[in-house]
Design a protein that fits this description.
mainly alpha; 49% helix
């Protein structure tokens, strides 16, 4: 299937430069990283990282620890 749709986003210039540098160090382009994010989100039918407000914890293992282990 051809790539024939475009998504435009606005971000701060510094974040753009930093993201370009990060993706280059990983051997990909920013567009490739965003495509990877989209494919992972579609496969999981969810955002592939925890999104929400931080909750206070009692010092034990957090839900974040369990959630993050899915991506290791």
């Amino acid at each position: 299937m051809g790539k024939d749709s475009t998504i435009y986003i606005r971000i701060e210039e510094g974040e753009k430069r930093e993201f370009e540098s990060l993706t280059a160090s990983l051997g990909m382009t920013p567009s490739g990283a965003v495509r990877l994010f989209i494919k992972k989100a579609l496969a999981m039918k969810a955002i592939p990282f925890r999104v929400g407000l931080p909750e206070e914890r009692d010092g034990g293992a957090s839900e974040d620890d369990d959630y993050e282990s899915l991506f290791r």
